[in-house]
Design brief:
single chain, 175 residues, two-stranded antiparallel sheet, globular
């Protein structure tokens, strides 16, 4: 077998995919240098969702009701929306919130009770790619980590999760 006929198989680790996803997210930073420094120093940086991605913010109680769990740590392995989601205990006041990264076009038209789209021009505090545990109070962390550049949540899966939780949180049917 010659070198040119060998199949090339690329193996990447989840850490490498998360770092590549982080580099991609930095395209939404008002200041690239400042965002990198903020990620290194504090574990989060302010980014501006726009053409790269949109964001949907979901009350913690809605996600907890949908998954039958009481905390972000319990919910983390249960969230199945095919894309990155982070938690902030300051998202909806004392309740906290989950933020799902979605295609920008989805955030423009999102209208599912129990959640709100993050305005595409407003700054969003986003955790560093390696912030996958709740290490600092008030700082966001990934409950579903980044899995590479451009990987975003499936809108249908996300809507189903929110509808289920919003219905359960109100004591009614999930849809």
């Amino acid at each position: 077998m010659t070198d040119s006929s060998r199949a090339v198989t690329a193996v990447t680790t989840s850490r490498e995919r998360a770092l590549a996803g982080g580099q991609w997210l930095l395209g939404a930073a008002p200041s690239l240098q400042e965002a990198r420094a903020d990620w290194a120093e504090s574990g989060s940086a302010w980014l501006r969702p726009s053409a790269l991605f949109g964001a949907v913010v979901i009350r913690a109680g809605v996600v907890h009701a949908a998954l039958g769990a009481d905390s972000p740590i319990e919910c983390a392995p249960l969230i199945d929306v095919d894309g990155p989601v982070f938690f902030s205990d300051e998202g909806f006041g004392r309740e906290g919130a989950y933020t799902a990264l979605v295609p920008a076009s989805v955030a423009l038209v999102w209208g599912v009770n129990g959640s709100i789209p993050h305005h595409r021009r407003a700054l969003l505090q986003v955790p560093a790619p390696d912030a996958v545990r709740p290490e600092r109070a008030g700082r966001p962390w990934w409950v579903v980590p980044l899995d590479g550049p451009g990987t975003l949540c499936d809108p249908d899966l996300l809507a189903a999760l929110v509808k289920q939780g919003a219905g359960d949180a109100e004591g009614g049917p999930g849809a």
